[in-house]
Amino acid sequence: MFSRGSEWREWDLHIHSPASFHWDGERFGSDKACNDHLIDEMIGALNDAAPTAYALMDYWTFDGWFALKTRRIEAGAPELTKTVFPGIELRLAAPMSARLNAHVIFSNEIEDQHLKDFLSRLKLELTNQPLSHHALIAYARNAGADKLRKHGFEKGKIASDDAQAFVAGCKIAEINVDSYKEAIRLVPDGQAIGFMPFSTNDGLESIDAMEHYAYTLGLFESSPIFETRKPDLWAAFCGVETEGNKKWFGNFQAALKGIPRLAVSGSDAHRFRGNGDNDKRGYGDFPSGKRSWLKADPTWKGLLQALKEPAKRSFLGERPPKLERINQHKTFYIDRIRIIKSLESTLTDSWLDGTEIPLNPDLVAIIGNKGSGKSALADILALLGNSQQSAHFSFLKRDRFRGKSGEPARQFTGELLWLAGDPCVMTLADDPSAERVELVRYIPQGRFEALCNDHVSGKTDQFEKELRDVIFSHVPKTVRLEALSFDQLIEQQENVFRARASELRKSLRALNEQIVDIEDQLHPNVQKNLAEQIRLKQKQIEEHTSIKPVAVEEPTEELTADQQRASARLAEIGAALEKLKSDAKKAAEDRQTIGRKQRALRNIGERITLFEKQFAVFIAEIAGDLAAAGLKADDLIKLTIDRTVLPGRQQALATSDDEIAKKGEQDVAAEAALVGEEKQLSEQLNEPQQKYQANVQSLKEWQTALEVIEGSETEPESLRGLRRRVAQITELPTNVVEKRASRREITIQIFAVLAEQRAAREALFAPLQELIQENSLIRDEYKLQFQAKLLGSSDAIATNLFGAIKQNIGELRGEDESLAAVRSRFERYRFESATDATGFAEDIASLLTESAGKAANDVPGIRTLMRKEKDPAEVYNYIFGLQYLEPKYTLLFQDTQIEQLSPGQRGALLLIFYLLVDKGRNPIVLDQPEENLDNETVVSLLVPVLNEAKKSRQIIMVTHNPNLAVVCDAEQIIHATFDRKSGARISYRSGSIEDGIMNRAVVDVLEGTKVAFNNRGQKYH
C-alpha cells in the first residue's frame, strides 16, 4: 500500500526491450545466461531512471514481458523497484499512405494465457491469420515483390530465409482494425486498454478524419489513452480548452463524445540508457522534455483512476505546477505527523501511541465512524500547527481527552514534521501559544457558524475582520507601505477624508444653528408677541400724543436790552444743547463701532492662535509622509504670521475710545453749565417770555420722549426696532429656504467625501477582484464579488434619533411604529448617489417636522419633539451630516448578499473565501465542511472549490460525506478506527482511493454502499 496516497510520478508507458525486432543493442537469443544478463541490465536501467511505472511496448510480441517476469522470480535476480506493465505495439491497416501504429497496455497482474489469447485474436490483414511468429513470416512471403522492395527486402531472400522473412513481416504486416478492437474487448476483467499514438510517429492524426470519419471515430471510441507531445492536444484530450486549441476544441470534443481521454508521452526508448542524443533515448528519456506525469499509485488500479479524470490526474511537461509549488514552498507542507506516549507514562491504554502518518500534499480526507478518532487527528494537527482556534477543539478539551487535570493528554507528545523547517513538538495537554506564528489554519464547523451568524446578527465584526485580513494580504506592498494591518492602512489612507468631512460638518453645525434660530423665530408666539409689543408701543404713542404741550406763540411785546441779550443767548444755548445731544448720539455710535472693531481684533488674535495650533497638528500628521517622501515641511509650506499689526490697531482704537470718552465727559460738563446758564437767563425774562421758553422746553422734552418710544431700527425694544423685526421675520421663510438649500449642498459635499472614501477602500481590493476575474470558477459559477458600499442601519439611525426626540405623536407614536417609520424611509434608498443621501435626510427631516407640527399646530421646526436638554441642531447635524453612513465591506455570492443566505450556505461561502481567495499558503484543516449542506450543494459548490484549492495548498478535512471524499478525488484517505476493547486504541490507516483496502473502507464508512458513488462508480472495486 502507498500510505501517502496518490502522488505525482513520472510514467513512461512506451519503452521497448531486447525482445523487440527494432532494438538498439544486443537482442535476446538462445543463450539463457546472456538473456538473464540483458534482463538484469534492463532491471537496473528501469530502477535508475526517473519514472516509477513503465509499459513494455515491443513490436508484435510479449516475449520481453515473459522474460522479465520469469527472471524476477529466479534466485540471484536483482530486485525490480519499479512497476512494469505488459504491452504491445502493433500496426493497423488504415486508409493512409503511411503506417498507423497502435498499442495495447495490460494489467501487470494479467495471466500469461490471456496475453496469448489476445495475440491469437488479432488477424493479419493480408492473410487473415492469427498473429504469431509463423504468421509474420507467412505474411512477408505472401507480400508482393514491389512491397518488399519498398522496405529494402528481396523476394527471393524472403522465401529462403526465415529470420529475414520475420523481420520483413514485422515491418510490413498490418492488423485488421476490427480484430484489434475485438481482441481488447475480450480480455477478461478489463485488463487491457487501447493506447493509440496520435501526434507522434505513425499516429492517428495523419488520417484525414473527414474523409475517413467512421474509421477515425471508431478508434477514438475504443482508445482511452492517446500519445502526444503537444500540450494543447494533451489539454484537448483531457477536456480542457486553451488559447491554443479553442478554435477546434469543440469539434475535437464532439469526436470524443465529450468523454475525456488520458494523453501521455512515452520515451519510445529502444535502448536501456540514453546518451543525451534525442535519437538514442533510454528509459525515461522523454523527447523535448515532454515528460508524462500521473497522480496515482503506480498500479493498474492507479492507471484506471487516472483515466477517469485525466485533467486532474495527468500532466505533460517538465514538472506539474503543484510539484513546482511544493518545491518552492516546502515549509508550508506537512510531511508527516507522529504521536507517542511518554516514556514515563503509567497508562495501560494505548490511545494514540505509535501513530505515524505520512500526509499527502494535496487533499487528505479523514474518514471513520462516529467516535473513531477523526476529530482527534484534526485537533492534534491544529494544536501542533499552533492554530488559534483551540476554543473549537472537540477532542482536546477538558471534558474529553484532556480531562479535568489534563489527563491522559499530558502523557502524549505530538510531532509535526514539515518538508523543510523545524518540527513542531508539543504535549497534547499544551495550549497553542499566542506568541508563536500560526502554521496551520484550522476551520472547524463551529467556527464557520459563529463567524457567519454573529455577522448577520451584528454581535461581532469578526467576519468583516476576516475579510479585512484577506484583502490586506492581496494589497500590493507598494500600497500598504509600513502598514502592518488593514486597519492601519485604512487609518493612513482615510485620515484626509475624515478631516475633510469634519470640516464640512463644522460648517453644517453653524448652518443648522442658524436654521434652528430661524425656525424658533417663525414660531407663531414670537410673531404674536411682537404684534402685542407694537400695539403697546402705539398705545404709548397715542397716550404720549394726548399729552403733547400746546405750542405757545412767541411774545411780541418789546423786550428790554437785557431781555433781548438773554433771549439771544437762550437761542444760542438751545442750539448748543442740540449739538451736544447730536454729538453724544454720534459718540455712542462711534464707541459701538470701536467696540466691534476691538472685539474683531481679539477674535482674529484668538483664531490665529488656534490656527497655529491646528497648523502644528497638521505638520505633525504629515510628518511621516514627508519623511517617507524625503521632504521637509518648509519645502512645501511656509506659514508667516505678523501679529505686530494687531496691538497697534488695538491701541489706536483704545486711544480713540478714550478721546471720545473724555470729550463726552467734557460735553456732559458743558451741557450742565449750559443748562444752568439757561435757567438763570430764563429768570431774567418777563413772564410771557418765561412761559414761552418753558413751552419750548416742554415741547423738546415731549419730542425726546416720543423719539425714545419710536426709537430706531437698531433698538430692538423700540417701535421701529419691533417693526424691523417683523419685517425680518417676514423675510425668514425665504431665508430659511436658502439656508436649507445651502445645507443640502453641504450634505452633497459630505456624501462626495464619503463616496471618495468608499472608492479608495474599493481600490484596496482591486487586486483581489482581479484575482476573482482570473478564476472562471469564482467569476462565472459563484459570482463572488467584493464590494465597498456606503451602508447604514435603520435600527441604529432610529436609536440615535429616539434618544433625542419623543415618540408620542403621528407616525412617531410608540416604539414599533416609530421604528417602522424610519425603516420604511431607509429602505427607499440605496445610498449610491448624493440624491439618495439628501433624499433620505430630507425625508427624515420631513417626518420629524410633520410630527412636530401635529404636536403644536404647525409650529415650524422640531423643537416641540425634543427631549429635555436636547437641541434640534444636534438632530439636524446627525441627519444631514450623514453620520450614519460609512464605507463597509460586503461579500456577494451569486448576486445575493451574505445576510440573505442560509447559515450553511454562509459557511460554504466562507469556505470558498478561505480556500480560493485567501492568499495564505499554510495547510488548511477542515472539520466537516459539508455540515448543513445537502448533497446537491456539496457537489455544485464545495467540490469544485476543493478541487481548485488543492492546486495551491495542502488541505486536510474530516468528512463523512462520500461526495466530498470521492467526487473531490481525494489524493489520500485516512481511515480512523477506535478499538475500545483492546486498550482503547485509536488507529489510522492511509492510502489512495484507488487502493482496494482503502476503497472498501470508503464504501463502508462514508454513509452507504457503492451506490453512493453515483457517477463515480468506477472509483470503487
Secondary-structure topology with pairs:
Blueprint: E1 8-15, H1 32-48, E2 53-59, H2 63-72, E3 83-92, E4 100-106, H3 112-121, H4 133-142, H5 145-150, H6 155-160, H7 162-172, H8 177-185, E5 192-197, H9 213-222, E6 225-227, H10 231-238, H11 249-255, E7 262-264, E8 292-295, H12 300-308, H13 310-313, E9 314-316, H14 321-328, E10 334-341, E11 355-358, E12 363-368, H15 374-384, E13 412-418, E14 424-427, E15 441-444, H16 445-457, H17 462-474, H18 477-480, H19 486-521, H20 524-546, H21 561-629, H22 633-636, H23 645-684, H24 687-710, H25 719-764, H26 766-774, H27 776-782, E16 785-791, H28 794-802, E17 808-809, E18 812-813, H29 815-826, H30 834-855, H31 872-880, E19 886-893, E20 896-897, H32 903-917, E21 924-927, H33 935-949, E22 955-958, H34 962-967, E23 972-979, E24 985-991, H35 996-1005
Parallel strand pairs: 1-2, 2-3, 5-6, 6-7, 12-22, 12-23, 15-21, 21-22
Antiparallel strand pairs: 1-8, 3-4, 4-5, 8-9, 10-11, 10-13, 13-14, 16-19, 17-18, 19-20, 23-24
